[in-house]
Structure formats: C-alpha cells, structure tokens
Amino acid sequence: MDQAEHLTLYQQMVVIRRLEEKSAELYQQGKIGGFLHLYIGQEATGVGAVAARSPHDNVITAYRDHGIAVACGMEPKVILAEMLGKVTGCCKGKGGSMHLADKRLNFWGGHAIVGAHIPLATGLALANKFRGEDSVTLCFFGDGATNIGYFHEGLNLAAVWDLPIVFICENNQYGMGTSIERASAVPEMRQKAEAYGMPSARVDGMELLAVHEAAAAAIAHARAGQGPYFLEALTYRYRGHSMGDPERYRKQEEVRRWQSDDPIGKFEAVLLKRGISPDDLNAIEAQAEATIADAVRFAEESPFPPPEELWRDVYAEPEAEPQPA
Amino acid sequence: MPEMTLIEAVRQAMDEELARDDRVFVTGEDVGRRGGVFRATLGLFEKYGPGRIIDSPLAELSIVGIGVGAALYGLRPICEIQFADFIHPAFNQIVNEAAKMYYRSNGEWLVPLVIRAPYGGGISGGLYHSQSVEAFFAHVPGLKVVIPSNPRDAKGLLKSAVRDPNPVVFFEPKKGYRLIKGEVPEGEYTVPIGPANVSRPGRDLSVFAYGMMHYYCLKAAGTLAGEGIDVEVVDLRTLYPVDKAAILESVRKTGKALVVYEDNLTMGYGAEVAAILADEAFTSLDAPVKRLAAPDVPAVPFSHPFQEWFMPNPDKIAAAMRELAAY
Asked: Which residues of B191-205 are buried (b: 16+ CB within 10 A; e: fewer)?
C-alpha cells in the first residue's frame, strides 16, 4: 500500500468513528429508534480487511455493520438516513441500523440474526464457484456467532466444497454481555476452524496494517482455489453491545486498557512516523467532521417514506429476472 | 397425452428446467448419486453432473441457507428437504432470510429459490415423517406456498416455481407420489402460481382442498354424485398468496363450504378459508363453514389404527359432505 492508500484507510476509520459518535447523539435525542450497535474500537478490523478485497469480492456481515458499510464505500449520508428511517436511506427506511446493504458495492448487508448470514455467505461463494468467477466472499461475524449451529454448518460446507470464502471472526471478547470464556468451550475461535481442516490465522485486530496483511493473504488463498480460510481478529468494542447496555459485565479498567490501544491512535502514530504531517491528519479529521455534518443535515431533512412503501417489494413480478451482481 | 405419476412429473419438471436454464441447480440430502430418497432426482446426477446436482450434508439450515445466498447471486437453486418434518432447522432461513430479502432491500435482492419437500401422512411414517407443515409458511408474506394434487399441476407449477423471482415453498404429497397418476401435456407448458382450480364443478356445496386431500375429495365427490349430491371441488393449489376470488365465487354459487386438510384442525389452513367466507361471503352462506382436518394431537402416531383415526380419508370426507349437504 502506498501513502495515499494509507491516508484513505485512516480517513475511513475517522469517518466511521465520527459517524457513530454522531449516531449515538441522535439516538439519545430520540431521532434514531430501536437498537444501535456501535463499532467504535473495532474500526481497524473492518477497514483493514475490506481494503484487501477486490471490488468484485463479496462482503457480508452481522448487525454491527456501520463500519463495514463505510469500508465498502457506502456514503455516510445514506447510512444516517437509513438509521433515521428516511426514504433516502439505503433501504428506504425499511432496514435501519442493522440492515445496511448495497448490492452495487457487493456489500450483501448487515444481518440481524446471529450467525444466520453465514450459510448465505457460503451460498454466495458457491455461486461464484458455480459461475467460474474468481470472486471471494468475506464473511464477518462476532465471537458469539461461533457458538451457533449456522456457523458450524457453514464452515463445514465451505470446507467440504472448497469454496472461495474468508471467514473473518471479529473477536471482541463478548457475545452481548457474556464473555467468551463463559460461552465458548475453546479460548481461540480459530480452533473451531481447525475442526473443519481449515487453515487459520489470529491477528491483532487493533493494528490496521496487520489486519490488512492477514486478510490479503487469506483472500489470496481463497482466490487461488485452495478453499476457505479463517481469520480471527482480536478486537474490542468500546461502547456497550447496543445503546441500552448497562455494561455490568466488564470493568471500566478493562475498557480503558483497550482504549489505550485505540486502532485510530495507533495508526496515526504509524503515519506520523512514516512522515505524514500532523496538518494532513488534521485536514482529514476536519473533512470527516464536515462529511458527517452534511450527512446529518441530509438525513434530518429527508422525508419519511410515504405510506404506500409499506406494501412495496413484498413480491417481485415474475418478469423481473435476477441480475448477477 | 402421456400418463405419469406425480413423482415422475416432479422429476420431469426439474429435468426440463435444468436443461433450459444453466443457472438452475439442485441440492439436498442424497439428491445426487442416490437419486433422492423418493427418487425425485433419479438420473439427474448422471445427466447434469455433480456441479449441478449437489449432494449436501444432513444439514437443512445450510441447504436452504446456501440456496438463499446462491439465489441472491442470480442462480436458481432447487433445494430439497427430504421430508417436510425436517424443514424446521431451516425455518429461520426461510422465514427470516428468504421471505424478507426482497422487502428489506427495497426490491433489489431477488431470491428465486424453490424449496421442495414431501409432506403428509398415510405412509406409516410415524411422528417425524408424516407432518403437514404448510400453515407455518402460508402465514408469511414474501413466500409463495404451493401444493400440487396431480401430475399435470405438479410439473407445471414446479416449472413456474423455478422461474418465479420469489422464494417458493413447494410441498409435494408423498403418499400420492406413485398413487396419483394422470395425463401430462406433451411439450413445454407451465401452470401459473396463484389461481385455484375448480376441478369438479357442482351446485350443492363447495369443498376446498389441496394435495392428497384434494385427491380424496374428488373420490368422495364421485361417491356423492351417485347419491344425487352435486359437489363442487376446488383445488387450491397455491396456498399463499390466497386465491380469494375463486373461494368466494364458488361459495356464492353453492352457499355451503367444507375445507379439508390433513394438518391439525386448529389454526390450520381451513381457519383462513372460513375467515374469508365469514368476512366476504356472509350473506351467501346457507350453512356454517365446516372444516374436516386431523385432530389436534402433536403428530401423526405410528400404529396403523392411529394413523387411520388421524387422517381424513374418502369415507370421512363423504360423511362430512353428506352432513353439510343435508343442513
């Protein structure tokens, strides 16, 4: 990666952080309803891994999807509009925070049922192989999803059919409020991939370049027809599971310890060491602030969907032929 | 027109669609080398190869899950669930993923998926190889639920299902696989998903059924014809979306309605038909809407007498018809 690419990834992480801080404010103001799961602290895993994909590679993730949506190229204004339930959102307000998606970006969405998207991802990879394409599917999920059946069936099928897929476990140490040692029989999630004969790696998810490098190797493995790969990124979410989380299950000193390992701060240090000027970083910061301010304005000024949208898109008309991505 | 069994019609539909569209593939437990537990896919593995007739592990949620994923990407999967009783692990993939994908993506993501499953009792399959599960799925907007009752419809409806851009749950009456024979048109044809079919016009009462029970209803109606009672039999064929117009039209003519299904009585498909009639044909009714269905016990018990008590059959249906005609 050259310096310009480094700066792009830095900018993505900053945009995600500002976007989510703002969305938390909007949630507290009652402008975003329902559930809001923030990615803050995990930015390096999504940004680092997605940066290693080719544009024709598929990305699919769970409900903590804002960061990965940005990394895939979704505009913050479309994301915020969706969070506010506006017709200008990526799902015209039908999806909300957990269901961001855009087929044009080969971003196959956030999915709200834990682990249920893993077989879907396996199906995307099967379709790529079926059609003789060299696309790879990047399937993100949390540590909590490795304890559910979907995960095990999905991994087994991907391995037995040699599918071009990279399973990326964002291990943030907690499935909602339950720590991994209380929920998982093995301490490292990648041990579960070993059961399916799948090669794996474990990487520091707070280090952007380390994630990028590991993801690039995993994607190359899958693209070369060597079958699936399992990448575990050790990371941490600084905020609660969702906005309504009292966080009684962890100590503040643990959170502070991980905050001192902040992925954005660490990458900033790397960039400064490599000769990027503080002014350049400040300019990116200012630009991110402006982008988010514009996005908030756009989302707030956008209309809600009209009532007839309720009945739209229940069934496709038979003449609508599905188009390959 | 050649005569064939229902299972042969199902196989021919898949064969023709596989030949017509190279995006179509079949997956499921033992659908490949073994040709399917009921032989629905017999010969297809040899003809289309392991890349398109894909043996899956015993893993229903994955069979449907990879089907949804591949359908999103533009393929046309036919996923076989070996018995409808085994579909429950995939419930989430069908109800939460397949059914909602088009809606949640505002019409961007199509799921042109067919899920085939043999259903129903009468084959001594016992509790876990006899279930009728259509009511669970007929409750879900975004899904289409189809149950054919004869070879012609089985072939034509399955071909429509493969071509439909929406997820279609296609239940096949397994007791009728070889028992039900009928003429099937030569050459290319489809039967549209949606419309019901008046399979036997009549004046005295309307009977609504689908699948195996439709076959029995025709038999019972034949018996009653000899007694001077003229029964109209309506084959619902597509359970969801509901062909309300056909239901209403028939009852507006006859004034009496009986719904026959082999699922448990309560909260079953007949409840919806009765509700439609109460709501929109109240003034046309000359008798209470009647339902003949299986008793509300947890499953089809194994032993032969149990099964006989559980299942509606032509005699029980004929008795219900007589009673309603006399009202």
From this structure: bebbebbebbebebb
Closest residue in A to B59 (Cα–Cα): A153
Encoded tokens for A111:
């999915």
Q: Cβ B69–A154 below 8 Å, yes or no?
A: no
How far is the C-alpha of A180 from the C-alpha of A183, rounded, in Å? Answer: 5
Contacts of A95 in chain B (CB under 8 A): 104-105
Give the minimum alpha-carbon distance from B299 to chain A in angstroms, rounded to a whole number. 26
Task: Compute how many other C-beta atoms are within 10 angstroms of the C-beta atom of residue B46.
Answer: 11
- pLDDT confidence of residue A325: 44
Residue B129 known to be catalytic? yes
Determine the Cα–Cα distance for residues A158 and B70; give it in Å rounded to an integer: 13
Mind listing the pLDDT tens digit for each residue in B240-258?
999 999 999 999 999 999 9
Look up tokens 């290693």; give the residue.
A52
> Does residue A218 contact residue A208 with C-beta atoms inside 8 Å?
no
Contact B65 A153 (CB under 8 A): yes
Return the residue of A nearest to B73 by Cα. A324
Q: Which residues pair with B208 in a beta bridge?
A: B234, B259
Distance CA B18, CA A320 (A): 20
CB-CB under 8 Å, B65 with A103: no
CB A100 within 8 A of CB A81: no
When CB atoms are compared, the residue of B103, B107, B164 closest to A318 is: B164
Tell me whether residues B70 and A312 touch, CB distance under 8 A.
Answer: no
Pick the CATH number of A3-311 from 3.50.50.60, 3.40.50.970, 3.40.50.720, 3.40.50.1580: 3.40.50.970
From A305's Cα to the closest Cα of chain B, the distance in A is 12
pLDDT at A262: 97
Annotated catalytic residue, options B88, B129, B139, B304 = B129
ipTM of the prediction: 0.80
What's the per-residue H, E or C state across B30-95?
A: CCCCCCCCCCCCCCHHHHHCCCCEEEECCCHHHHHHHHHHHHHCCCEEEEECCCHHHHHHHHHHHH
Question: What percentage of chain B has pLDDT greater than the value 70?
Answer: 100
Buried b (16+ CB within 10 A) or exposed e, A119-133: bbbbbbbbbbbbeee
Reply yes or no: is the peptide bond before residue A263 cis, omega within 30 of 0.
no
Contact A66, A20 (CB under 8 A): yes
The C-alpha of B135 sits at a distance from chain A's nearest C-alpha, in angstroms, of 19
Residue A252 Cα, gap to closest chain B Cα (Å): 37
Looking at domain B197-325, its CATH architecture is 3-Layer(aba) Sandwich (3.40)
CB contact under 8 A, B104 and A125: no
Residue A41: count other Cβ atoms within 10 Å of its Cβ: 25
Which ranges of chain B have pLDDT less than 70?
none
Q: Which residues in chain A are contacts of B97 at CB distance < 8 A?
A: 111, 113, 116-117, 120
Report the pLDDT value the prediction gives residue A320, as an integer from 0 to 100.
Answer: 56
Q: Which residue of A has its CA nearest to B110?
A: A322
Mean pLDDT by 10 residues, chain A (325 residues): 95 98 96 93 98 98 97 98 95 92 96 94 97 97 95 97 98 92 94 97 98 98 98 96 88 94 97 96 97 98 92 84 50
Query: What is the residue extent of each domain of chain A?
Result: 3-311
- Nearest by Cα to B42 from B7, B3, B93: B7
Q: Which of B27, B61, B66 to mutate to test the interface with A (most CBs of A within 10 A)?
A: B66
**Could you say which architecture CATH assigns to the domain B3-183?**
3-Layer(aba) Sandwich (3.40)
pLDDT at B304: 82
